[in-house]
Amino acid sequence: MRAAETAIWNDYWHFDRLSSFDDAGPTNYAQEIAAGWQAFFEALPDGAAILDLCTGNGAIAVMAAAAARRARKSFRIAAVDAADVNPYRHVKQHRDDLAAIDFRPATPIERLPWPAASFDAVVSQYGIEYSDLSLSVPELARVIAPGGKVRLVVHAAEGPVVQRSARVVPEIDFLLHDIDLAGAAQRCLRAVAVVERSLNHSLPAQAAARDSVAAFQHALRETARRAPIAADRALLAEAGETLTLLYQRRRQYDVATAIGLVEEIRTEWRHHRARLVAQIDAAITREGRADLVLRLKALGARQVSEADQAGPDGLMGHCIEASF
């Protein structure tokens, strides 16, 4: 993962979110997804050592800890991510289960810090596909112990989540470039402040303020016009509502602060776009799933099974399970 991409994920995981899904539910993922993980962890023996690859804030690792607690087993759980994750600090729920996990931030899965045969199970949910598979899959095989179990779930390129992401990217481009909503808001705030705060009531200053307000209002109308037909209606609706409210409350801030708040919104749009593009690029087709199976078999995996992972909206991911 490149440094710029890592910085974006750093920001993303420095919030109180356990998974990358907005509606995680009590099991961190929809029950259709969680059930497979629960069955996998419950089948592991007492004392198993588990490694969660590309853990984020630990959604799957928490499932493992919860399964151990319910079954009165003792698991040793480690979790790695290339981003600077710190769930102990940022995640408010599942505190006891999080405390049972050894998180290793800033740890690329292409270079794992454990000796060979360290783990009885290696897992990943929507993670390993973001890595360089030519390096990460051999590392997985290196650290898993003889008889160890693997369960990998990857984004399905054919699924509705990835397809929706592909539709949302142009909508973010619309905000960022086509109408430059944030830029229109910033220009409006500056021009209006010249008249309101410096008492510059000259005709040119007043004309500039009127023109900037009109341009901002036009951008807001274009946003509102597109929102009802957008793949991510909430994104566009919230963009317009947030910037409108900021303009209405502009006198509560100095100009630099108001401009900075708009820039933060623009940065979040850019980061959201980058995450979506990364997901689209990482997603794996059924042919890619077959290739991943061949990589595992070439490294000694046996009893390999592959299947579609269904969710509430249909195909969510591709699932591969194997023994070593």
Automatic annotation (TrEMBL):
Enzyme class of the recorded protein, top EC level: transferase
EC number of this enzyme: 2.1.1.-
Any GO MF annotation of the entry: methyltransferase activity
InterPro entries found in the cross-reference section: Methyltransf_25 (IPR041698), SAM-dependent_MTases_sf (IPR029063)
UniProt keyword terms in alphabetical order: Methyltransferase, Transferase
GO annotation (BP), single: methylation
Methyltransferase domain segment(s): 50-148
Name this polypeptide is given: Class I SAM-dependent methyltransferase
